[in-house]
Every structure is written in structure tokens, then in C-alpha cells.
Amino acid sequence: MGSAHAGKYVVMTQGQGLNATQIERIQAAGGTITAQLPQIGVAIVQAGDAFAADAGAIPGLQSVTRDVELQWDVPESEGAPISADAFANPPGSGDDDRFFDLQWGHAALDAAGAWNAGYRGAGATVAVLDSGAYCAHLDIAPNLIGGASFVDGESYCNTSGSSHGTHVAGTILAADNAIGTIGVAPEAKLLAVKVLSSATGSGDFAGIIQGIVWAVDNGANVINMSLGVRGGLPRSGQGANELSELINATKRAMQYAGKNEVLVVASAGNDGRDLDHDNSTMSFPGQLPGVLTVSALAPEGWAIDAGVDLDVLASYSNYGQSTIHFGAPGGDTRYPGNELCTVGPVTQVCWIFDAVFSTTSVSGGSHFYGWNAGTSMAAPHVSGVAALVYGKHPGIKASHVATILKQSADDVGKPGKDDSAGFGRVNAAQAVTY
């Protein structure tokens, strides 16, 4: 799971924020307040080991909890990154973005149907809480309007290290610019919010909480959290009480998003667990209230037969009716064998095409692309469709967006809500008819 974050504490108040007396008492206890979030009654404090005991006696504080550094399950990229420079000709579909033919996920949810109806996400803003983004990427830069980092010593503009956030952002809103891939909502705007270290894939509760509040306050309509704690968070045992307070602080941030009509979309996690019956751990943040949680669906052998079922639960995806709201393209690499296939301009081993193709980054490169598979790849497909809906309906309530997504989804599992895809696999073309 993770370990206590040395010197960092999450302080929850009983009111809206710290008053002057509480600030003085915190400082007297050796604490340095590094962030105040009166919107949710939370503060972040740097202090020594004795701080929790000393500050616990301050009137009006609900809890003082040492922060925990979490190890997030960040999928590894599959195969070597591909540069758009390597291919001069567009793919066979006739679209001028060179790699659009590789984006089977867009076909699954009929993104082109929404575009043809005139809806491309203009007017919507999506915050991607992740490992940052490669800001210079030619498919990302046109839609990037800002960002923030809540990881010490790291910028939200990555120049090396993890490309996870870049891949997620590109799935949502890569520009339709005749270069590489296209996002589900290619005219939506991006806020890149770094809450995970590019170097380690780790991040703490304080970063997540601050990232959510920052995104809300800076105009996000949708917050995408392609995050999942590896193995989940324990519900009992050593450290569970402290974790529960940190989870409660995160819930406050989620409630703040809901009150401000911001839709939060999260990945279900990659542990292959039945979330209906495995109560020993919590999928975080997927099992927080107020979150739309997404499982991963994938074909097997799509490069060999484009007519295969695109809506099969991925081998690694968490599932369960109690938690899953939607299924979406997340990719998988379960196809056996290493024979070669050619799709559009690319020849690769056949199994790799079953993963999700999107923007990625390498040191010194500005427009690279590659494959990833995970519920991290599924969530941004839902966020992209939500952005299309926000773009069509300025000022729409988040609950109404969620209802539209449910009513317009394709029922791909058993009739009604099911374990693998919840209310169904999102459908972009149908969502914009509401």
C-alpha cells in the first residue's frame, strides 16, 4: 500500500478552516502550515514526529493524521514509443491523423458519431489528476490551458519519466490536427494536475486532496482520476484508523467537487477483484462516494479481426455491481502468440494492438505515441464523453451529466446493471443526442 509520509500531516477542522488561535497553536506545536483549504476544512502541515499528539489537544480540530505515501498502480507502456515522423501517410480510414486507425476504443464508443453531429468538447475543461503531462506534445499543447503540481520538486510539465498522464490526457482530448491521435473530445481544454511522482508513481493523500480542490477552483467540469492503489487500502488492521481519517478528508474534497457541479471519474483498479464480495480492502479512489467508477473492456485479436467483441471485461480489471458505473475501452494483452499484424501504418506483434493507443512521451521528443492497458485507460474514455456532454450543455449539473451517460450507454453485459460494465459501455454518439 504505502508508508507514512515523514513530516507531513493532514489536519481536519470541525468548521470551514483554521482560525487564528488554531494557527497559533499549530505553530507552537512545531507545525508549518503549507496549505490551507478552508473550502473543505482541511490544512496540510509539515512537522516533527510529536506533532500529532501535541496538536490533538487543540480545540476545534477533528483530526491530525500523518499523511501516507501511496504506491499507485501505474501500467507500464507496452512496446517502444512510435514517432509520428516515421509515417508520412495517413491510415486507410481517410482521416488525416496518422494513427486514428489504431484507436479501436473510439470505434467502440462511436466518438466519430458525436463529432459528425457537431460535438467535439468545445467549452468543456477536463482536469487530469495524474503524473503530469508532456506539455510540448504536439497533440497536447493546443488544448493545455494550465496546471499545477502537488508533488514536491516536480513540475506538472514532464520532460522525462512517467508518460502515464500524457497517455490519459491524449485519450480524452488530443487535438484533431493531422498529426497523430485524436481525443474523444478533441476541442476540450486540459488542466494537467500532478499528484503522482513521474519517477516513482507514488503520491500522497495531501496531493490528491489539494489537486481536487485546485481543479474545482480553476474551472474544471470533469476531473479524471486514472488512479488506483495497488492492492487497495486495508479496511482493518494496523493503520486502518489513520487511513480512515485520510479517506474522510478526501471525501470532503469529493463533496466539494459535487457541490460545484464537477463530475469525478475514476478507474476501478487492476487487481482483478470482485468488489461486491472482497471487503478486506477498499478500491481507492474508485469506491469513494460521488465518483463514477470505470472498469476496463478489451478485445482479443482485434488486429486480426476488427469484428471481434470490443466489450469483454479485461483480464485484470476489478468488477462488481456495487462499484462499477461504466465499462470503457481499457485494453488487454491476453491474446496469445507473437505473430505480426499491420494496422494502418504500423506493423507490430498482434497482441499489442489490443491495448489502448494514445499520446506518450520520451525525453527530447514532442510527438510520440504508444500503447498502455489498464483501467487507467478506460476512465479517460468516459471523461471524454462527459466532456462532450458538458460542451453541448453549458452550465449543466454534474448529476444530469451522469444521468445522460447512464441513459445513453450500451448495455453490453447481462440486461441491466452488471458486474463487468455497470450501466453499460459509454456511447459518445448517443450521449450527445440528449
From TrEMBL:
Coiled coil: none annotated. GO terms for molecular function: serine-type endopeptidase activity. The keyword Protease applies. The active site is at 130 (charge relay system), 164 (charge relay system), 376 (charge relay system). Residues 121-424 form the Peptidase S8/S53 domain. The keyword Lipoprotein does not apply. InterPro entries: Peptidase_S8/S53_dom (IPR000209), Peptidase_S8/S53_dom_sf (IPR036852), Peptidase_S8_His-AS (IPR022398), Peptidase_S8_Ser-AS (IPR023828), Peptidase_S8_subtilisin-like (IPR050131), Peptidase_S8_subtilisin-rel (IPR015500). Belongs to the peptidase S8 family. This is Peptidase S8/S53 domain-containing protein. It comes from Marilutibacter maris.
